[in-house]
# Entry
Amino acid sequence: MDMQKLNNQSFSQGMYGRQDLQTLIKKMSTVAFMLTVDGKAFIEDMVGGADQPQYLKVLKWRLFELLSEIDFLLSGYEMSDPIHYGAMSLEYGLREILPLNTAEIVDVFQFNEKFENDQVNLDNVFNIWERIIAQFPGKLPEAMLQEGQDELLLAIKNWSRIYARADLNTDYLKKLLDEV
# Structure
């Protein structure tokens, strides 16, 4: 896979379609929250689960499902059941969060290896994750660390200000915070 190609494309290539500002703000705050809370938790579990290869494979799939859900959210496509996001992304690729076709997804996440195989290489997964985080517009708080709780609260405060300026209801942010 051409990592240099990917280095310049996530969150930067005409993403999100043509959406009004309020919709875009709500989606980006949702994506920030999903990456901060769920995505970083998967990555931390991968780092800590090095001696549990089957668990790592499940975590890779869950991270892929999360990225697929984010991709669909950003694209504006809606499905009745999120269980289909991963399958649809495997069929058609990712486009919004990071442009990956089916072959690249299989390569990055090693979906072609046997589940019983005890060798799990996470280098490509970590590289993709770092690119997504680095190219996300804005700083994502380290919500999984105790010292990062202040960062998360500051981010919520900033998102609240943005919501207020865009004339959006902040109840949605409260719902996100309740999920932490």
Observations:
- Residues 109 and 122 are 8 Å apart (CA to CA).
- Confidence is low (pLDDT under 50) at residues 1-16.
- Residues 3-140 form one domain.
- Helices lie at 3-7, 21-48, 53-75, 85-92, 102-109, 123-135, 149-165, 171-178.
